[in-house]
Amino acid sequence: xxxxxxxxxxxxxxxxxxxxxxxxxxxxxxxxxTTFALPPAVSPQKPDPWKGLTLGTEVFATSGLGKGTRSGFxxxxxxxxxxxxxxHVLLGLxxxxxxxxxxxxxxxxxxxxxxxDARLGYNMGRLxxxxxxxxxxxxxxxxxxxxxxxxxxLNSLFADSHKGATFTRATAGFDYAVSSNLTVGMSVGVLxxxxxxxxxxxx
Length: 203
Known about the structure:
By secondary structure, this protein is mainly beta. It contains 2 helices and 7 strands, in the order H-E-E-E-E-E-H-E-E.
């Protein structure tokens, strides 16, 4: 008996709308010239003025090639700007300044340096391999190689009247985006000094 009642209710639910379209049609009618307001326009999203700007620090190890050279560790701070095109190609500039350990035995313990790199890469999502070419200037540092200090390096680099030496650097590496605000990376490079300004005794 219960099964029969349930089936009847379902059938009634299907039949009633068909009957309601007959003499009991209550569809509202609208005046001929009725107009409807358009939905509000969606304002375009404003571009992020900080997109592409990078700030960070780097720590590196150096090793001289040839007799009379030595190894050491250095550090630097950097600021840069990267632009990724629609085809995923990345172009960027990065300015850095910091401390470079001395690589010549008998020479200064370390150097203050500042440089500018141009970067070319390919954005693969989180992973971005890249190559870079840059150059800069280095001056003998007044403090020990075991105590790198970016602020002291900047002051000594631009305030010291010592001429210093120029250098060029070629680098290859990759960056990995841990999150939208944090990226880590690794790279290897070759640095070549030009001139004799690395040693204050031989300007």
